[in-house]
């Protein structure tokens, strides 16, 4: 099997991996960052278990797309011992694709869809398996709930855990979690400088430099600067900077100390996309921009972490880490709110405050876009401390891998809302509406000086979180393992409003989460599992009162069942996996026709995942995935939602990325991202069509530098990327065809 031809390998991929989904894990270099031990010095059995020995024998680069271990100390290091679907997106995969943002990276994971600035929330808003994951983004195991757009310059990998995981992370994680793995200092020297330019006009530079200070200490600094147009969409210009230093002392000794930080400044142009018209995104030119030219989303991020890890011999390690995360956002954003006619235009129906509803028979060239201000200044701050103990011990013939710990922290949130009120064809609009412009010929101009910002509601929130957990992996002989875990959480939140009702609301929630699983490993290359897990979502989880009720609703509760397998083939060079699962959310928050909320809804997602990544043959890398989601609102979560499909949830989605070494030093490759049709809201009244976007790459490699050409959306497919449920369901067009040339110097 080691001498498979490309054609035979392709047939194998199509028949056994197909549109699959990969689990990967941090590279060997990343795994070695905290220890002087490397794959080269591991015992042969350990090297075989981690799947690195064959790769070394074949002389393949460590830049394979497949990774088999997790960075999270709450999980077993070997992902085959985790009874849950896990995908890890490696740095080499993201570099090959030219992915520079977290949103770009997550397009590799079927079952993940992107959202926009929904409900006053800014930054990366994503759905996992049909459920919002707005507050389920993590940075090195800590909740990263700040509202900002995340870059990949300081990341070594991105880990995606599918399914409820409150036993590991506390509140949230209905559909899963996304964990960003930071680059950290290591003894091995690192030198990498990248520069790129796109046909859109985006210029970007990143640097990653690390050196040993002495035999047990090292530092590392990652940096980023970029400016220009982010896509083919009009007016989409960003200017961003970032710096991520880290220092590690005691490397290879019993006590290691790691200090790290992430500093980032974003000056971005917001994009609320298109309004719906007759049940679809309005049929306008995809590059049209509806907003003001001086709109902006300014974000300042400052995250600081300190980790102390101490080994008590070979079988016990105690870790304590504290992280402070501060995000300040100053946003002046204008959104396409609805379509209609100015009051002085013929054909208007119901009219109010300078704008009229238009008949569905109105020609598009007569329609106007009603523009609404979404201005606010937001400050998110969080300080959390995590204490973890890992231990290995034997009780008779049973071997235990125990992980136990406690977490304490506080979140604070401050949101000062503003509004601008302008005119539409000379008529004053309702409060908060800036103006109007022709749908097919929008006028790009600054926000009118006659529409200054007026302060509105000030919302301030605070939440204290406490948690303690215990997990055990029991090895019953060489083939069978049992996994069990329990966690107890306490969540206390308080919200104050100056204008919006209710003026004051508080919530105190205590909840116990569980996880149980069984694993059968008939050979070192095979692992089959079954699992059960739970999670919970307090109604004040996002530190906002989304229900408008004076008393908080009980938490949404989630449970999942999963059956799957993870297998290594082709002498360990190709990893394949698959799973079937069901996630059910009870107590889902539901609004009736009068706007009153109750916790009576039920949402259920049944699905399947397939995945594969690694080497099909010498020089032929592949990363692929497929997800099937049968999502349904069993009991309504709002008027008109009964038996509907949850918004932004495609039934079928898939991804493929592959590169092949044509001749020495030259790689060619490409792939596609596919999603079937989705609805932009929970009432299924706005349908967004499916799409397949194809990208390509051509790489030239030398020992000290690489030159890469990436072409995005090769066939210039018109599609919609992020969806926003508010205002009937807005849809943000994806980028058109563009190209990027990059140069990377590395030692």
UniProtKB/TrEMBL annotation:
Species whose genome carries this gene: Scleromatobacter humisilvae
Protein name: TonB-dependent siderophore receptor
Membership in a protein family: Belongs to the TonB-dependent receptor family.
InterPro entries: Beta-barrel_TonB, Beta-barrel_TonB_sf, Plug_dom, Plug_dom_sf, TonB-dep_rcpt-like, TonB_sidphr_rcpt
One Pfam family, short name: TonB_dep_Rec_b-barrel
Domain TonB-dependent receptor plug: 79-177
GO MF, one example: signaling receptor activity
Signal peptide residues on this chain, from the entry's feature table: 1-20
Positions of the TonB-dependent receptor-like beta-barrel domain: 255-714
GO BP annotations, alphabetical order: siderophore transport
NCBIfam families hit by this protein: TonB-siderophor
Organism classification: Bacteria, Pseudomonadati, Pseudomonadota, Betaproteobacteria, Burkholderiales
């Amino acid at each position: 099997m080691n001498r498979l031809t490309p054609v035979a390998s392709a047939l194998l991929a199509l028949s056994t991996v197909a549109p699959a989904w990969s689990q990967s894990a941090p590279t060997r270099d990343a795994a070695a960052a905290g220890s002087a031990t490397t794959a080269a010095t591991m015992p042969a059995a350990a090297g075989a278990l981690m799947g690195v020995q064959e790769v070394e024998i074949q002389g393949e680069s460590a830049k394979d797309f497949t990774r088999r271990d997790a960075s999270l100390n709450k999980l077993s290091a070997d992902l085959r011992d985790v009874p849950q679907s896990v995908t890890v997106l490696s740095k080499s995969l993201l570099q090959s694709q030219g992915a520079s943002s977290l949103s770009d990276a997550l397009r590799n994971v079927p079952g993940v869809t992107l959202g926009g600035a929904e409900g006053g929330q800014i930054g990366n808003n994503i759905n996992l398996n049909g459920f919002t994951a707005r507050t389920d983004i993590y940075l090195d195991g800590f909740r990263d709930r700040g509202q900002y757009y995340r870059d990949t310059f300081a990341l070594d990998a991105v880990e995606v855990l599918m399914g409820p995981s409150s036993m590991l992370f506390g509140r949230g994680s209905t559909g899963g979690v996304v964990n960003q793995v930071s680059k950290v200092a290591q003894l091995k020297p690192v030198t990498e400088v990248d520069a790129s330019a796109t046909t859109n006009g985006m210029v970007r530079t990143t640097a990653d430099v690390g050196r040993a200070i002495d035999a047990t200490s090292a530092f590392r600094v990652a940096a980023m600067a970029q400016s220009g147009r982010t896509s083919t969409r009009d007016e989409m210009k960003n200017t961003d900077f970032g710096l991520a230093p880290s220092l590690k002392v005691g490397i290879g000794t019993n006590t290691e100390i790691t200090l790290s930080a992430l500093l980032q400044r974003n000056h971005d142009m917001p994009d609320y996309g298109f309004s719906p018209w007759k049940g679809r995104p309005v049929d306008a030119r995809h590059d049209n921009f509806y907003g003001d030219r001086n709109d902006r989303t300014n974000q300042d991020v400052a995250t600081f972490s300190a980790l102390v890890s101490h080994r008590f011999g070979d079988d016990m390690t105690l870790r304590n880490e504290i992280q402070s995360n501060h995000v300040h956002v100053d946003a002046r954003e204008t959104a396409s709110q609805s379509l209609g006619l100015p009051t002085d235009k013929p054909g208007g129906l119901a009219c109010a405050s300078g704008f009229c509803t238009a008949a569905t028979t109105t020609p598009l060239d007569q329609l106007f876009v009603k523009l609404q201000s979404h201005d606010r200044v937001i400050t998110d701050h969080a300080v959390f401390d995590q204490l973890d103990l890992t231990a290995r011990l034997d009780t008779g013939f049973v071997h235990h891998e125990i992980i136990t710990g406690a977490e304490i922290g506080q979140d604070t949130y401050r949101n000062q809302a503003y509004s601008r009120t302008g005119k539409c064809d000379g008529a004053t609009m309702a409060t908060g509406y800036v103006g109007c412009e022709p749908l097919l010929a929008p006028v790009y101009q600054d926000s009118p000086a006659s529409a200054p910002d007026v302060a509105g509601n000030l919302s301030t929130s605070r939440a204290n979180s406490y948690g303690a957990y215990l997990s055990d992996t029991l090895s019953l002989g060489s083939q069978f393992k049992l996994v069990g875990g329990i966690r107890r959480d306490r969540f206390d939140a308080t919200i104050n409003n100056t204008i919006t009702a209710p003026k004051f609301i508080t919530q105190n929630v205590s909840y116990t989460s569980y996880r149980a699983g069984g694993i059968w490993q008939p050979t070192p290359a095979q692992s089959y599992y079954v699992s059960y897990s739970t999670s919970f979502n307090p109604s004040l989880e996002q530190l906002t009162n989304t229900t408008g009720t004076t008393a908080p609703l009980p938490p949404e509760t989630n449970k999942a069942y999963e059956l799957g397998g993870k297998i290594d083939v082709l002498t360990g060079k190709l990893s394949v996996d698959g799973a079937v699962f069901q996630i059910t959310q009870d107590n889902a928050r539901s609004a009736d026709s009068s706007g009153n909320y109750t916790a009576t809804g039920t949402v259920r997602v049944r699905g399947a995942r397939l995945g594969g990544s690694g080497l099909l043959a010498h020089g032929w890398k592949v990363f692929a995935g497929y997800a099937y989601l049968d999502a349904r609102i069993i009991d309504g979560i709002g008027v008109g939602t009964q038996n509907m499909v949850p918004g932004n949830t495609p039934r079928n989605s898939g991804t493929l990325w592959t590169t092949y070494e044509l001749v020495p030093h030259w790689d060619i490759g490409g792939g596609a991202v596919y999603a079937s049709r989705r609805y932009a809201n929970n009432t299924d009244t706005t349908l967004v069509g499916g799409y397949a976007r194809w990208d390509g790459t051509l790489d030239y490699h030398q020992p000290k530098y690489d030159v890469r050409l990436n072409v995005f959306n090769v066939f210039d497919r018109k599609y919609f990327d992020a969806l926003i449920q508010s205002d009937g369901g807005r849809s943000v067009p994806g980028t058109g065809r563009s190209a990027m040339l990059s140069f990377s110097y590395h030692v």
